[in-house]
Amino acid sequence: MLDSNLIITLVTVVLAGLVRGFSGFGSGMILVPVLSMLYSPLHAVVTVTLLELIPSIQLMPKSIKHCHWNSIIPMAIMATLFVPFGVYILMNTDENIMRLSIAILIVISVAILSLGFRYKNIEQNRKLTLVTGVLSGLFNGAAGIGGLPVILFYLSSTFTSRINRSSVIVYLAIVSLIAVTTYLYRGVLTVDIIYFVLLLIPAFITSVWIGGKMFGKTSESFFRGATLTLIGCIGMTMFYHSI
Predict the structure, then answer these.
(1) Contact, 27 vs 16, CB < 8 A?
(2) Which string of DSSP letters, residue by residue, matches 83-128?
(3) Which of 4, 25, 42, 72 gives 20 to 30 Å between its CA and that of 33?
(4) 3-state SS class at 237
């Protein structure tokens, strides 16, 4: 018989998969806070990072030709250097402090995304690109939400939604692989977590596929608003439970 935590997890995985398939991002922002409240931040972060590899593989073939490599490559290099520092923070920080930190990051990010900032000629801003990669590496290793700085980077640009979506998908595939490799090296990717991920994969793959089919057929502004509202509510709930 399924316990209540697993039922909540599966429902959250389906919601996260729909968001991931449609927008190319957002599943970590939904899954990490929920799983951190149900389990431990370490368990949540490693689980979500491993799970994120699946949709990246699913969506990557159609995304490679549309992504912006001039920004992805420098960001990925910086993220590679800083993911291990993020993992160190995750392994050596009190669980309640990590939960509170993740909640604050998510709430602030949702607020910034909601304001709709836009940068012109962002592809020429090399410093911002490198800083984004550094923050992404730290966030990915420590909180499993390395896509946050990258999402802010692309959504605040003047690129088309297809370029933004494709770039985030390809970038997350690279960074997730780096993070999983680091978790293996540090010994935090356990057999129990692998079994747990295998249990979640069917629901996640299916919902990502459905979300991908919705892209281009559903109002992007409505879906974006609904997603940010959902993520914001989750972040605030996690913040409330962490204080």
Answers:
(1) yes
(2) HHHHHHHHHTS-HHHHHHHHHHHHHHHHHHHHHT---SSGGG-HHH
(3) 72
(4) helix
What percentage of the chain has pLDDT greater than the value 70? 91
Range of the domain at 98: 4-242
d(CA 175, CA 130): 14
Q: DSSP per residue over 34-68, as a string?
A: HHHHHS-HHHHHHHHHHHHHHHHHHHHHHHGGGS-
Cβ 52 vs Cβ 28: under 8 Å: yes
**Do residues 46 and 193 lie in contact, with contact meaning Cβ atoms separated by under 8 Å?**
yes
The torsion angles phi and psi of 214, rounded to 5 degrees, stand at -75, -20
Lowest mean pLDDT among 15-19, 20-24, 71-75, 83-87: 20-24
Burial class (CB in 10 A: 0-12, 13-18, 19+), 69: exposed
How far is it, in rounded angstroms, from Cα 171 to Cα 135?
A: 14
